[in-house]
Amino acid sequence: MFTRRWTIAAAAAAVAIAGSxxxxxxxxxxxxxxxxxxxxxxxxxxxxxxxxxxxAAEVAEKAVNDSGGIxxxxxxxxxxxxxxxxxxxxxxxxxLVDQDKVVxxxxxNSNDGLAAIGRKAGVANWFPxxxxxxxxxxxxxxxxALNCAGAAQGTYLGGLRFTPKKAVYVAFAGNTPYIxxxxxxxxxxxxxxxxxxxxxxxxxxxxxxxxxxxxAHPDVWGGMIFPPEKLTALLRAAIDQNFRTPLVLSNxxxxxxxxxLVSDSGIPNSVALEKGEDxxxxxxxxxxxSQLAKYDPDHxxxxxxxxxxxxxxxxxWTFAQEARKLPTVTAAxxxxxxxxxxxxxxxxxxxxxxxxxGPVPTAPRQxxxxxxxxxxxxxxIVVDDPTPFSAFQKTPISN
Length: 399
Known about the structure:
CATH topology of the largest domain: Rossmann fold
Radius of gyration: 20 Å
InterPro entries: BCAA_transport, Leu-bd, Peripla_BP_I
Signal peptide: 1-25
CATH architecture of the largest domain: 3-Layer(aba) Sandwich
Keywords: Signal
Number of domains: 2
Number of helices: 13
Largest sheet: 7 strands, mixed
Strand order of the largest sheet: 8-7-9-10-11-12-13
Number of strands: 13
Family: Belongs to the leucine-binding protein family.
Protein name: ABC transporter substrate-binding protein
Shape: globular
Strand content: 15-25%
Distance between the termini: 45 Å
CATH superfamily of the largest domain: Response regulator
Helix content: 25-40%
């Protein structure tokens, strides 16, 4: 069961490092009929933190267990909240490996020492989303989606759709992976004049940011700031100033109010979609929506279209599917299985070969190079073309 408690060891570690770690665990910690995976992420106490990835993992865990678990055993996602403190990552990862005996890490990222602990213990990280070298240089990181790659997908699609001469991209100050990928996407779409506006993460008043965007006189604009409600606040500031320049986004950061705001405004827009987002075309997305309806009826997940949230759900869901193929699920058996996967398939991602490097220096290790063309209208995200495109390989798309 996906529950929360403070462990004595975690509390002690928290005091020692002036941080805190929250564990989702229960009395069956040592139950041989339970398969545990560890999810560690900044879920609170940080300007960029929010709970939805944890809630989405919980939804997938419940769906897995209600469908027979993993070969008759229950799946438990043990969650540690780092509260935005890098030192907590080490304490949490050690607890997951040494005491919880997780068979894999799930989602999140491998930065701040997690990768080193995982490699030493032989624990694979299934579907991390970080852009740091700790992930892309780690052969135990099975990357199916790379957050910063979404910036390139979004700008590439926007560049092709609107054929601008000048673009503005808004990003958090110092968020180099997103900024560089955004410029790469525009460049591959033939747009070289790109102004970057960097925003301090603690920003709450976005009216001055919109004033800077307007002063640049772009043909298109957009960006990525976190958490999702901050992107909504940025867009609301633009609408309040009647700034109607075409909007270019990816669904890396996407809450329901964002979709409603853009839809109600009628501003021309394009959105790169990481998971298809259409239940009539993609059975995996249909499963996601069905699970949300069943296990999150109160809509605790405010960002069901957010790229990180959907990836963490998919990480748990697909982990179970792969683990079911193994006669015995341990850290060693899952690690070796994952390292040999060269034809991983799900309809909401391109086929992935985890055994080779990706073709692009900015997105190695088979990052999710593919996305789907879409836009926001009529209160929802619309998939324009079910054929995936790639900003990195410069494939054509249909408008």
